[in-house]
Structures are given as structure tokens and as C-alpha cells.
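To close the chapter, one final illustration. This time we ask the reader to focus less on the individual chains and more on the assembly as a whole: which components sit near each other, and how the overall shape emerges from the parts.
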Amino acid sequence: GNSVTQMEGPVTLSEEAFLTINCTYTATGYPSLFWYVQYPGEGLQLLLKATKADDKGSNKGFEATYRKETTSFHLEKGSVQVSDSAVYFCALRIQGAQKLVFGQGTRLTINP
Amino acid sequence: DSGVTQTPKHLITATGQRVTLRCSPRSGDLSVYWYQQSLDQGLQFLIQYYNGEERAKGNILERFSAQQFPDLHSELNLSSLELGDSALYFCASSPWDAAGELFFGEGSRLTVL
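The assembled structure is written out below.
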């Protein structure tokens, strides 16, 4: 089946540290890949996406590259801020499928 | 603000009871998705409607049902509630049938005592 595996949290970093949150997937066919972010008390919102191999999604200083050879879509940011504290979800969608399949989520806390 | 409205925000009820969660999608969006978020199971897809028709079903229990009305709002009905149904229930909408970017509401937190 189709599934997403994220690195387990929680992840705690200091402000201005480098961030990597690992995400790997298993999919039949060629999925589109997404990162969603959930700030405290809010719903999920799309952070970035990539629809084909080698695409790089980027937004708000975050980046992720669709790596077909390693079935990965790791989220990175060069210098995190306290305001980046949230839960991050990696997700995939198989072409033509209705639903998004989410990973378990990774809670990120940034300390000043 | 995503434009997706869910009510109620919080709900506390007892085992065996029935509740209805309501979702108004973003203006113009035809698809509505329901997800359940619990600590042990993460985000689980329940069901999707597109323009009033059921389009996809996920891990939705038989005790749960949903529908999308002509004005495109949707309701998720949960009956014979059990302690394990306590969770955050999210509604999301999108303009299309096949999910791409989903716009999520803030969720309805259900506590079953």
C-alpha cells in the first residue's frame, strides 16, 4: 500500500540551527509529495509541494527535493526561528487518487 | 484563515451518544474531506465528497456517516460513541475531485467520557 514514514519527534532545536526532518514514502506509481504544517491550535496548511522526481518545493525558507531513487522528501531549513515551532506532516497523493496519505507528524520546538 | 469553517470547536459527550460535526468549505470548493487525528493513529482519512457525491472512503467506521448537502456544506455523524472516538476531526476542502492542495479547518475536538 501507499504510506509515509517520518522521523519521530519531538525535535528540539535552538534558534538559527539547521533543520532536517526526514520523510520517506512507499507508493504504487508516481506520487505527488507535500509538506503540511500545523501551528498550535490551528488546522494544517500547505507548506510546499513537488509533483515529479527532482522537483524542489520551497516556501518560507523551507525546502524539500523529491528524490525518486531514495523515495524521500526530506524537509530542510537553514536557520530556524521560534515561530517555526509546529507539527510538520509529510504526505503523498497517487495520481488520480482522491485522498492524501499523511505521515505521523513531527513536532518541532525551537528555543530562543 | 483557510476559509474552511468547522463547528463546534469543542464537544464533550458520553459513551453511547451521537454527535454531528459540521463543515463549511471555502467558497467555490466542491470537494470536502474528513480526517480524524488521534495521538496513536495520526491523521486518518475518513471520507471524501465531491459536489454532493461520495467519492472516496477510508478508514471510516460503520458507526460514522457523512453527507454533503446541495449548498456544499458537509456533516459528519458519529453514533454509539466509544472512548476511542475521542479525537480531533478535521474537515478540508479543495476545488477539485482529486486532492492536491487541501485547505483545512481548525478542527472539532471531540471528547467522549
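Chain A touches chain B through 22 residues (CB under 8 Å). The mean pLDDT of chain A is 93. With these observations in hand, you are ready for the problems at the end of the chapter.
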